[in-house]
Structures are given as C-alpha cells and as structure tokens.
Amino acid sequence: MLRRAVALVAFAAVAAPAANAATLTIQVTSVVVKVTSVDRKPKGTSAGDTVHQRNALLNARRQFGKAKGTHVGTDDGTVTFTSAHTERYAGIARLPGGTLMVRGDVRLVVGGGIGIPIVGGTGHFRGATGMLYVAEGESRALNVYRITLPGNVA
Description:
The protein is mainly β. The protein has one helix at residues 2-6; strands at residues 22-38, 50-59, 71-81, 87-95, 98-105, 107-108, 114-121, 129-134, 140-149. An eight-stranded antiparallel beta barrel has the order 1-2-3-4-5-7-8-9. A hairpin with a 5-residue loop joins strand 8 and strand 9 (140-149).
C-alpha cells in the first residue's frame, strides 16, 4: 500500500501531440532508498498526512546508451493525502539529459498500479507532458514515463 501511494505515476488524458511533436517512453525500475511518513491527527490515513520518498532509478531495458539494470537516476517526491482514499503527488525524476516534473492527483490504473501527470521538465525534457505509470510493488516497482515533447525541443 505504501509503495502504491508514493509511486510516481500519471493517469490523465493527454492532448493529441502536434504533428512535429516527439513521443518518448522511458522504463525504469524504482528502488526505494528512503521513506519518511507523517501521520497527522486523526490517527490513520487522513487528509494532511504525507509520505516523502527517495528512490534510485535503474534501467528496465537498454536506454540512455546504458545496459539494463544500470543506475540512471533518482526520483524524489511527496504524496499528500487529500482524504483517506485520495492523494496528490509532487516530485521530480532526475534522468540523463534532464529532469521530469510529476505533479497531480494520483489515480488508480485499470489492471493495477497508479498514474500521475507529467507536467514539465528541463534539459532534453523541456516542455514535457504525459503520464507516469507505476506498477505495484513495496520496495521495487516498474515506472513507465510516456512523454510528449514539443516539436521545437531537440
């Protein structure tokens, strides 16, 4: 449950990309490095509770010019519960060539896992939009970033 709550995943409708826009899929395995939880009153999961998580990101396939299993980045973010059953996420993934900003409501994905919107980026990912999908897992989970980059970004 904790991993599901803090996994970076985006599940939202993405506008049709412009004709010259680029699409990109990045697959990494997220490995938990540190988790810090704050349970505000009342006891148990409720609005205002937070979970901050830091993860190492390993290639789930060959990409970034590196072999599968190679450390390629980190992510860092916070889940804030808006009720006992709803959450918002704000975080950043640091990958070769830039960062991806992931922010928004955490949504369950049909078939398991969660989704969270990608709302921006830096470097090679400047102007990125899309979704982050996170599979279920307590200490390790597959993260799939489905990204659309504006056509004017190289």
